Amino acid sequence: MSLSLPWSQRTPIGVDIAGRTIKAVQCAVKRGAPPRMIACVQASRPGQPARSPLPSAEDAALIAGIIERGGFEGAGVILGIPRDLTMSAALELPPRSSGAPLEQIARLELARANRADPSAFEMALWEVPPPLRAGDGTHAIAVGLLPVHVEPLLDALECLGLEVLALDCRAPALHRAAAPLLARDGLTCLVDANWDGLSVIVSLRDCIVVERFVESVGWAGVCSNAERRAGLGPDALAGVLTRVAACEESLSPRMRTVLGEYVDSVVPEVARSVSYATHRYPETPIRRVLVTGDGWAAPGLFERLGASLSAPAQPLLLSHVATLPRVGHTQSPDVSCAVALGLALHGSRALMRSAA
Q: With DSSP H G I counted as helix, E B as strand and the rest as coil, what are the percentages for the chain, rounded to 5?
């Protein structure tokens, strides 16, 4: 006789290193149930740079300390790569039936678009559904990473006893975390309002069909303006937004202006990406908008996005895609931990519950 033990499989530790914080998440999974988060820790990176520094040995020490003290199990890590360290391109390649070397052609096209040496980077490639009235070519998105950007971090993590099992990009990690909430009969827009910039990801069922990064629209700029114009650093601003959301505090006129300017810059960029997607897939409407990242709580963001896109906009609440840890057992995960959750689920075959 054999017994099936619940929650016997632990995921690797998903580590999202982007902006001014490092976030780490680990889950327990079993078939037929949402993942259960067993550990979640956030820690600030030293300093408050306007732009994220390249991942470094200093980051490795911080990651190792988080894992040692945060209730995590094992030493296997799935490492998320900051978006601005990667290069990407949407490509139209020859038909797969032609026998053409699609991966080689994609590598050359990605190198040409980014003025890079084709042999100097690692590349991932995935096919996307062809747009309406497309020919018989293969439509795909290619993403490349220069190893020189991450090798110092990988070496330092190995010296500290951690094993990086895979490198993953933020877009597929976020898409993986949001899987139970993705619309099945239309497009879903994922908005990552991150420290370094705005990432807009449009998904058609289970496939990313558009990914766009807008460097000029970053939460770092909001924090800089908040400190200069209202004397609020990033942590203080986060506290204010938490209290505002709980109706415990009102925004000052200066902060309403700063945050209003941010929302004014986010909405048209998201609309531009969604417009491109709906032009390619005109018979597939936008059904849902999910927001995560540092700037997710900017007042008015959901209302403005919903009105602009004619689709409901909401935060990507982790309680809708996973069972959260007990209060006091670990840090309480917030919306901005969605990428780390998706990293932890890299390669997992757990069947998560569908959205209500």
A: 35, 25, 35
pTM of the predicted model as reported, rounded to 2 decimal places? 0.89
CA distance 107 to 165: 24
Strand partners, 323: 36
- If one counts every other C-beta atom within 10 angstroms of the C-beta of residue 135, the result is 8
Report the C-alpha gap between 196 and 36 in whole angstroms.
29
pLDDT tens for each residue of 183-199: 999 999 999 999 989 99
As separate numbers, helices (DSSP H) first and strands (DSSP E) second, the chain gives 9, 14
Structure tokens at 318: 């982790």
The DSSP code for 284 is S
At 341, list the tokens: 């959750």
Per-residue pLDDT at 6: 52
Which alpha helices (H) appear in 178-252, and where do they start and end? 219-230, 234-245
Nearest-angstrom CA–CA distance, 130 and 151: 36
Strands 36-44 and 86-93 turn out to be unpaired
| Residue range 68-117, pLDDT digits in tens | 999 899 999 999 988 878 888 889 999 988 989 999 999 999 999 989 99
